[in-house]
Amino acid sequence: MTLLAQLLSQFKPATLEANLDLLPEDVRAALPDLKAAFEAVDRIMYCQWSEDLPDLMADRASGYSLEAKALRHFNGPYNVLDANKSFIEGVPDPLPGKNVYPENLTEAEFDAWIDAHPADRAAFVSPCTVIERRLNSEPGSMLVAIPYAEKYRDELNEVAAHLKAAADKLEEGALKTFLENRAEALCSDYDAQAESDAEWVRLHDAPLEVVIGPFEVYSDALKGLKAFYEAMLLQVDHQAGDALKSIENALPILAEQIPYPAHSRPAMGGMAPMIVVDELLAAGEGRSGILASAFNLPNDAGVRGAVGWKQVMIRNVMQAKFDNCTRPIAARVLSAEDLAASSFDAYFFHVLLHEVTHGLGPAYREDGRSINEACGRWHTALEEAKADIGSLVLLCQFQGQFGIPALSLQTIGASFFAGLYRSIRFGLHEAHGRANAIQYNFLKEQGAICKTEGGHLHVVPEKIPEAAKALLDRICTLQACGTDAELQAFSETYGTASEDLIAQIDNLSDLPIDILPTFPLD
Ligand SMILES: [Zn+2]
Questions:
Q1: What is the C-alpha to C-alpha distance for residues 330 and 411, in angstroms, rounded to an integer?
Q2: Mean pLDDT for the stretch of residues 332-352
């Protein structure tokens, strides 16, 4: 197999489902304009990665060759599964600072410039400026921060024109106003954009969610400051949203299942509204190889504090990943009985209650320190394990209530382990992987899973609720009052994969890692 064929074989082609007929006619009429806006977002993201990328994508990403397919799938020549290394011969790996910093800028020089020019700080650390070097000054060179609205003016004007054209097709309403305001905001300064983000958080009851702008900073490997452009077009399922409202309303009852040992206290505030959507189209960083199953935005601390944020569950992406990636894993790992019992519904509600559980449980210790601070380097893995296992406890306890479908313990347990194996593949050494190892080892020790004669995993349904509660209790106690030695002992005892588990994961290496999606609007 050629390198490109090998690369693509890790992704299972999948069609994302959605029912466009449910959209009002005016909204359907606006879809082509939104699609055109998304294409312009792609071009901005290419500029952010490398000067040469817009031309490369224009020349080589269309057609049916493997190269064109791979370029479209990763939305560029860089492999997210391999530290963003280039997979096209002759195309160099990207720079840490991509194309949003000068080529030869070091972190030390960036920091030194800010120290020497305090007035420049705000513009330099802004998520929405490009740093450039100007050579025409004394002595040596000087650094300047150029706002995105100026740097990408032509492309942003294009995005705005398409968004306005889409708004023109819509009848009066909050979505129309949002698109008009968003078009303006993308072409103006950071504050205008934050204001527009706040408007998006407040936007309810619209048939579509249009997420468009620079949001995440993961691709800035130099300083982790600069946001990269992305776009997602999402069809809202208001009926599913109503089921989530019942869960939100039941939050005080759910919270009683999570222990608060040693006078620890929960976080203030409560929970962001959750919505269920189907993804119709994505662009920019929104479609770079691995699609998100869920997200919450915006990231701006000011907007989050004042208005909040939206938690978005992307159902058709979750479904496609479940059918094409999780199921084949389950087929290999689980016993036939457990495989038959596993279901997408159980998986979906486990992911949903995982997000809910993050907002519950100890957040502060009796001495006032946050759990995060008190647990230090052990925190992330413990917190992820808490969310996973807390969700399992809630699912066992409340299936059939508050909009959660009725599910048998066997279905809950089998779906839980199918999901666990999929996620553990992404690496045992990072937080989610360690969190998964903790759960696997603990539940196994409690007898909640066993091996069949054929070496398959079998869930012992009646043991799942007790074992999950015991682990939740253990984790919350560690978070609430564990000493560093206790945290370390627990994390090392349970957070390490046994040889048996490693062998099981190695045995999955030929199965697809993720999907190669066709979007409803592609
Ligand atoms: Zn989580």
A1: 12
A2: 96
What is the CA(235)–ligand 1 centre distance, in A? 24
How many angstroms separate the alpha carbon of residue 432 from the centre of ligand 1?
Answer: 8
**CB atoms closer than 10 angstroms to residue 80:** 17
Q: How far apart are CA 334 and CA 189, in angstroms?
A: 53
> Mean pLDDT across the chain, nearest whole number?
93
Burial of 203 (0-12, 13-18, 19+ CB in 10 A): middle
Choose among 449, 40, 22: nearest CA to 231.
40
* b/e burial code for range 357-382 (CB count within 10 A of at least 16 → b): bbbbbbbbbeeeeebeebbeebbbbb
**Interval 381-434: pLDDT, tens:** 999 999 999 999 999 999 999 989 999 999 999 999 999 998 888 777 677 788
With beta carbons less than 8 A apart as the criterion, state whether 288 and 75 touch: yes
Percent of all residues in the chain with a pLDDT value above 70, rounded to a whole number: 98
Q: What is the pLDDT of residue 251?
A: 87
Q: Scanning the structure block, which residue is given the tokens 């206790």? A: 486
77 CB-near residues (< 8 Å, 6+ apart): 53, 56, 71, 86, 87, 88, 91
Interval between CA 386 and ligand 1 midpoint (Å): 9
Q: How far is the CA of 49 from the centre of ligand 1 (A)?
A: 28
Select from 9, 13, 514 the least CA-distant residue to 293.
514
User: Ligand 1 mean position to 357 CA, how many Å?
Assistant: 9
Q: What is the predicted pLDDT for the residue at 54?
A: 97
- DSSP-derived letter for residue 1 is -
